[in-house]
Amino acid sequence: MSVRRARRKVLAGAVAVAAVSAAVALPGVAQAATPRSPLVVKLGQVQSGPLMPGGRAKVFDLSVTNTSGKAVAFTDEIGGSAHGALSLDGTDVRLNVTPVHAPASTLEFGGQDGGLLGFLYPKHGPVNGAFTLPAHATYTWKVSLAATKAWPVNDDRLFFGFNLDTKDGREVSRGLDLKVGTARTGGPITQTLTGGNVLSPGKPLVLHYTLTNRTGAAVTQTLEPWIIEQLPGGGSSAATIAYDLLEHGRWVQLDTDGAGLPKLPAHWANGQSVSYTFRMRLVRWDAGAPASQKVLIQAAYDPFLASADRLVTVTH
After folding, report:
1. Which of these, 158, 267, 271, lies nearest to 223 by C-alpha position?
2. Which residues, listed in sequence order, are joined to residue 11 by a DSSP beta bridge?
């Protein structure tokens, strides 16, 4: 299994984590807290209207109240994710958090695993250290959140929030569902992987990978699709498979055990499809291996989003 695929498997839920523990509570929804949490988190009123890429920030208060009769130590994780088909890299959002009635604070925030992730912690303490909130006290910060000009116009919403975790593991979350821009976007990039499903010596398997832009706007980001293979139940493959790409009527060898595909064209229009035709060749079979093996072939344009999959039987 490639390092990239391993990261994708491990981080399959990373966008949800970056959105603060699998979708923090949205406006109008009951606060998602573990039972008996001593902390109450509130977000102040947010100005109406969408975030405009390159436009003014939304400014609101973040307050944390300790309802218990003793001091509580907690850490604060901040995260977010986009609604649409493209990942975020940290340049898409500008965030500032300033203490109002709280200790001097340090903010670390940026892109991670296709979403946004950061931490707020005491300025003179350890990285990602804990705040200690006295009994029946409240800490308040002023939050400024803006979408930059780098925001992908294909994504029309930002899920953003805070997750607080006490030292004994009691969590409390609060978040926002923010409209970004005025266009109606946020749709998917659909992917299909079609063709045969049996690969054997001397009989290459030809597959067609097609992507269609259904986001509602042109894709101007550089996207680099790729193919990867793995066994559905884990383990090691008995087969060494070579990949060739059909370019201008001839086969061009790519790699073995998966391959990168040519970059998608710039300004890939809404509604436009791009297709790749590639073939798989069985170049080696481990001695003593079973006569056949199921291999899952996956094609994708982003390691943190869904892939187009095809289960192939490799026979020897």
Report:
1. 267
2. none
